[in-house]
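Final report, results section. Input specification for complex C-07:
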Amino acid sequence: MYKRIVVAVGDYPELDTALEYAIALAADSDAELSLLRVCTVPLIFGALDMVTCSHLALENVMEAHTHLLACAAAAAEEAGVSYTTTARWGAIPDLLMRTADEVECDVIVVGSPASPGWPWPYNRYLARQVMARARQPVLVVSQPPPASYGGHCGHGCWWCMMALLGQIWRSSMP
Amino acid sequence: MLVVHDGSPGADMAVEYALTLADTAGLDTCILRLRTGGLSHKVPCLRPAMKASTALSIAGTHPALAESNDEILAPWGGISSILETATERRCDVIVLGTHQGRSWQRLWYGHLARGLMAMTDLPLLVVNRFTVCRYA
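Structure output:
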């Protein structure tokens, strides 16, 4: 059905959802997955007391970026999906669309929490930006795929953690 | 698969894309033609009726869909109607078009996608007029 799918990798719950859905979709349609990690410098790096030690902190940030991308790649590998990884610096919506154009993908998967009410501008910023400007179809997901469609990735993402907590809570109930 | 045609410029592309995708993947499709009874019917340049006829002609080329089309009059945007239909038909995904034109057009036509995004747990497949259907 689809040949190439682009998804952003990150440490937000909605990005985890999108990644999980994209892996399941790629496994189901035998598509190639393009994993994009957009690196950003934390705002605190601009503070005066961070100037002397910012290079040390930046190394940790880069390690975290690499670890996230490696986790996503491992999840894709475990699902038997062929993938490519890319890490770039900049704004997530712009780079997601640019990468989608470059790899000529068929669909972009983005996550969006289904929660009406405030703060909706913050919650759905990425999905709204990509939806309004992308040239490719955009699949907006708010939940991980059903169990029959792939299930949890098993790599410590937010949804796996919630599922684990749910299992522990249920087992502790009398 | 529930395909929503709201009369926006991108809706025809969404219908065509969804039908081609459904043919390729063997999915059941339901087209929902949304007639907004508010201001859009009074302002000629925003009237969705013309576009809806285009969607019908596209759907007419797919005989299997002849019995699955619905038309719903939704006075205030129709988000609840879309969600009810998706629940009734047990759809797995909602397909709709979006517009990438000027700001006021995006504001007018984009509210449906934004509203659905906030209200439903179902995946939304948003298609715009630049989308090239590679499966035809």
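Residues 103-119 of chain B form the longest helix (17 residues). Chain B has one domain: 2-127. This concludes the modelling results for the funded period.
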